[in-house]
Amino acid sequence: MQRREFLQVAVLPCLAGGAYAAADPDAKFIVEAKFYEKLAYKKTKCKLCPRECVIDDRERGYCGVRENRGGVYYSLVHSRVCAAHIDPIEKKPLFHFHPGSQAFSIATAGCNVNCKMCQNWDISQSRPEQVRNVYWPPQEVVRQARDSASPVIAFTYSEPVIFYEYMTDVAAAARAAGVKSVVVTGGFIQADPLKELCKHVDAIKVDLKGYSQKFYADVVHGDLKPVLDALVSMKKLGMWTEIVYLVIPTLNDSEAEFRGLSTWVKTELGPDVPLHFTRFHPEYLLKNLPPTPVSTLERAKAIADAEGLHYVYVGNVPGHPGENTLCPKCGKTVLEREGFTIKNDHIRHGRCEYCHQPIAGVWGA
Amino acid sequence: MSRIGRREFLGASLAATLAAQDPSKVVIARDQSPSGLDSARVLKLLDRAVQSFFARDNPVEAWKLIARPGEVVGLKVNCLAGRGASTRTVLVDAVIERLQQAGFRGQDIVVWDRLNSDLESAGFPVGVRRDKVRFIGNDSAGYEDDLAVFGSAGSLLSRTLTRQCQAVINLPVLKDHGIVGVTMALKNMFGAIHNPNKYHSNAGDPYVADVNALAPIRQKVRLTICDALIAQYEGGPSYMPQWSWPFNGLLVASDPVALDTIGWQIIEAKRKEKGLPSLQAAKRAPSYIATAADAQHRLGTNDARLIRRVEV
């Protein structure tokens, strides 16, 4: 079985209560969108992401999961789960949020960008009718999370922004049940929906896919500035945020980009926001490029460290020492990782066990 | 997927031969009668257009030049806009009638578009008709598992296109498009892919051209018959009756770029007549047409000096 097939079906068959959806859109999946404007001649303008698609009647937005029906704009993916799995939180990766916990992870079809390196393109670049789905209302997701002893629900794999209404409904139900919620996103979202989202979820990991508009235009089919603005908003709203920067050979791996990114993070977000430089593997429309040399990731980390960021990681290189969390004061290893596993934990009540320096993050009891 | 079979080679050779005779001829056939177009008049109009295009006295002989009996012929209609601004059933029925008279069996004719519901909304049945002609949406037929890639386009292709049809007749509608300027021959192929919503940025340039350069589309589309019975010069692709007019015509070409170039001219002329700004001024000029003609794509010509416009 391919990784992709595994990803889509790993949890679905073994959990009761999920009936496979019919091929055609079903009323139970459809809710009116929260953020849009009605325009003349039954057109609508989506206000969820910065793309602001203007949609004719019977047409869909760029994401492929929001449709204008007679001048009313709908999400077609509420409770329409196409991928589910139980992952370690380190896989998101969130390194400073309840380390070692399990995240019950779900996705629907669709995405508001089209990254050439997407690892999950078969669900992110598809419409909901083109993939297999289960009907999981919010309470069902919470039940699955609790039954699988997962203290966290993660919205991930595709792009959670495009299933916004479902995500916020699940997060609200989860919070009421004492389950936390995290979002793995490209951060391509407008200010108002982001502000509302931050009321419901507990942490956000942002895939900052590059540090130039050219890269965003050519490779992501999006824009850089709205993502940077969203990161600043998350910081102001007190949301625990981590950043992943996937380093792609020749496309976004220059020293100037690493330095510019690191300076920006320190200046705009502060030195305590974790920054993960992760390894690219050839996928989707970028199969012509090699995996990222580990030395490039180490160079990126060295630059970010030198800029004064406290928590810089090397990712997708299991066993690399750059996976560990070091105390920014005494330099000792306070969280030792191997892949997605925590080998040693020397954080006590949010502080370094050795020098009592606070370690930024959400550590729990 | 890029391999070409013997049957497709023969078909492609036939099309290439036709194209070589008059590579960028665009026939515009119009019915000037003031009354509405019923099925008999549409059939006559179709005959006039196709006979003129292929320079044949007998309409049935002309259809034999599009494909060989035994080949499965797909009719790619455009049904997104419902009955108002979709490929009309009366035209499709006329095409089917002539194909059958030319020796194509009903089961070798497939009418297809993106969704079954789109077909139904435009007045087509879904499934197998009494004459064994099939009507099927991509949502039923499915898509290939492997990506087809050209330039900026990476898409899964309709299995109706890849697995059922040896030849395709493209049957778009002449109309305005609020994002990409115009939608005719080239844009209609967005109905052959799983992710058309990804390709409307920058007025569809270069995406429309890239999609049409995907090998199965480039190799199988033999002819375009553009439904301009009722055309639309503003407010598309949805049906807007206030911006539609009875052009009472059909455009026929084997060069989709040339056809779109002429169609764009027709829409611009109507916009000017109605006091609307040009598509360039409206910031949605269909620049993808020129891209389709460039050296990377070579899908046809947009050079007015090379296009032979024939009005009948």
Poorly predicted segments of chain B: none
Low-confidence stretches of chain A: 1-23
Into how many domains do the coordinates of chain A divide? 1
**How large is the radius of gyration of chain B?**
18 Å
- Overall structural domain count of chain B: 1
Strand count of chain A: 21
CATH third-tier fold name of chain B = Rossmann fold
Main sheet: strands, sense, barrel of chain B: 12 strands, mixed
Proper CATH architecture of chain B: 3-Layer(aba) Sandwich
What is the arithmetic mean of pLDDT of chain A?
Answer: 93
The greatest interface between two protein chains, and residues involved on each side, is: A-B, 25 and 23 residues
Question: Beta fraction of the residues of chain A?
Answer: 15-25%
Could you estimate the helical fraction of the residues of chain A in percent? 10-25%
Give the helix/strand class of chain B. Answer: alpha/beta
By CATH reckoning, the class of chain A would read Alpha Beta
The H-and-E topology of chain A, N to C, reads as HEEEEEEEEEHEHEHEHEHHEHEHEEEEEE
